[in-house]
UniProtKB/TrEMBL annotation, chains A, B:
Gene3D superfamilies: Isopropylmalate Dehydrogenase
Binding residue positions for Mg(2+): 222, 246, 250
Catalytic reactions of this protein: (2R,3S)-3-isopropylmalate + NAD(+) = 4-methyl-2-oxopentanoate + CO2 + NADH
Annotated SMART domains: Iso_dh
Organism of this sequence: Duganella alba
Record protein name field: 3-isopropylmalate dehydrogenase
UniProt cross-references to Pfam families, sorted A to Z: Iso_dh
Function: Catalyzes the oxidation of 3-carboxy-2-hydroxy-4-methylpentanoate (3-isopropylmalate) to 3-carboxy-4-methyl-2-oxopentanoate. The product decarboxylates to 4-methyl-2 oxopentanoate.
Amino acid sequence: MKIAILPGDGIGPEIVAQAVKVLNVLGEPFEMETAPVGGAGYEASGHPLPDATLKLAQDADAVLFGAVGDWKYDTLDRPLRPEQAILGLRKNLGLFGNLRPAILYPELANASTLKPEIVSGLDILIVRELTGDIYFGQPRGVRECPDGPFKGQREGFDTMRYAEGEIRRIAHVAFQAAQKRDKRLTSVDKANVLETFQFWKDIVTDVHKEYPDVALDHMYVDNAAMQLVRAPKKFDVIVTGNMFGDILSDAAAMLTGSIGMLPSASLDANNKGLYEPSHGSAPDIAGKGIANPLATILSAAMMLRYSLNRQEQANRIEDAVKKVLAQGLRTADIYEEGTTKVGTEEMGNAVVKALA
Amino acid sequence: MKIAILPGDGIGPEIVAQAVKVLNVLGEPFEMETAPVGGAGYEASGHPLPDATLKLAQDADAVLFGAVGDWKYDTLDRPLRPEQAILGLRKNLGLFGNLRPAILYPELANASTLKPEIVSGLDILIVRELTGDIYFGQPRGVRECPDGPFKGQREGFDTMRYAEGEIRRIAHVAFQAAQKRDKRLTSVDKANVLETFQFWKDIVTDVHKEYPDVALDHMYVDNAAMQLVRAPKKFDVIVTGNMFGDILSDAAAMLTGSIGMLPSASLDANNKGLYEPSHGSAPDIAGKGIANPLATILSAAMMLRYSLNRQEQANRIEDAVKKVLAQGLRTADIYEEGTTKVGTEEMGNAVVKALA
Ligand SMILES: CC(C)[C@H](C(=O)O)[C@@H](O)C(=O)O
Ligand SMILES: CC(C)[C@H](C(=O)O)[C@@H](O)C(=O)O
């Protein structure tokens, strides 16, 4: 079993180091190889996703990814900017199925900006399509506006598109995820305005026939954004496209107030996957040893579960994380009075100890 | 001065009736004419935006709009569904500038699902472009997928686009709105992925040169969705495109927990406008006399301010609404213990009385 380790930028290297430490004490024969990505890839070889890094990721059974991005790369041309690495990995590895749990740990209920009764016990799963939609649709660019009142001016344009097979396969992922949970799936669209999402709705409705045990409902994206604020616990699994999923999964993560705790998985058709924390590279606190490594450690647990077929090890890690929270250990981002503030490494060590 | 009154469906007629009552006691020589729209338009003449209704709206100085939509029209073909009326009015009247305040009245602080310290005193303004973007871009439809791994299958597609002049005019609206407030503008984009919104960002940055007194910052839409949950009071004015604005303005409205209080304005280049509550037609409570008419009454106030040049009357109405809240009057949606629950008509009457 080979794991590609891509730490990236900002706090990426620090938090990934803790997850690697945890993987190393499991007693599994994992081979791990590290390569630069994002700004680090650009520094090393002039491109955010160096060929060797892509090849390593392609050859591995799973990818553990930290985070990419730093203000100092903001002035680079778009194709050279760090986040292009993550788009390139998703596309080249065919990682169409993004699973983003939004879970509020009971110990962290106060971290949320929402009232406890609205979010305590929150446990929803957002399934976001990750290789289609307006993220990759062609044509796109800046051109001369071809018609209408602004004819002849410059205009920016992009293409939103979803093919039938693309919608079917993400719908299957979502229905199957719902089967393992509370058996309720909400498909989020904008069928009242967009042709793409009327088509999406029709196909999801059709796939539903194969999952009669799952209750399906449809919700417009603007309403979904409202319901996430109003009554997030009413959701079980949400499935949506790449663009809407980007927005809603971040909003859902923030409901917990503890985005430093949230892992994610991005899977291909064979359950090979890339695993990364839901938060970003936080360049403002990079190198200070205060970042929360738990989202990355929990991403490693998801990797064990989905790509490496090690359910029990995944459970062990998740239990160890719960244990350190119960012990009152907190990194700065989730600290509150009466708990013990620890740094990145101490937190990693505590998880290792809890595993023993 | 001629006002087109378009009550629409669901609770639309009830709440618009209260706003009309308020307008009638101002002692202004307004001529008001009513026409059916949405499901009511479809019932009356087979189309959600009957020709006569569109003509009335075009000839008027301002439009007061209730709400459209009812489940019973869900099975109609898309071009006949109620919400097409609102899209048709926006496009035909050139109402490109949508102003949606999200204000939390001190008396209603408990209505929010967010903690009081996060939202009390919230007062942000979302400026949403309303006649461009992927809402109207051509081409769009369902076709045979022309390339890639799904070639030959059906695919749904839409076109996102913004011309330079379209971005400039909404940027001017937003900068000028910011000048009248706290002089801070956040432009929301997805420039890291979309050509349309890299272009958007460039043009907004250019327009900024004409407003050196306004502080401009740029934020990705996923981050904006997070920051609205995390620290909404940090925003002053937000400007964004039609699609992102749809999602963010609804999320922002829901932060207040009292969407029944929030008006909106949709303006053309000459400040002619359509005014409507931010909430929907709520068919589940239609005809029960319990809907909150205040968002519609406050929409009438916005109409007086922006289209009819009656600042003082606008202030009078807004003060009257504050007065009835201070008196403890509440419709069911904002009711809490210790206040007095009233129906739609009682609430309208109370505002009329407070105006005297
Ligand atoms: C960095 C960016 C391109 C990316 C996205 O929009 O998908 C990020 O926001 C995410 O959600 O992983
Ligand atoms: C009804 C629908 C077409 C409309 C929109 O998406 O613009 C609504 O959600 C709104 O925000 O006014």
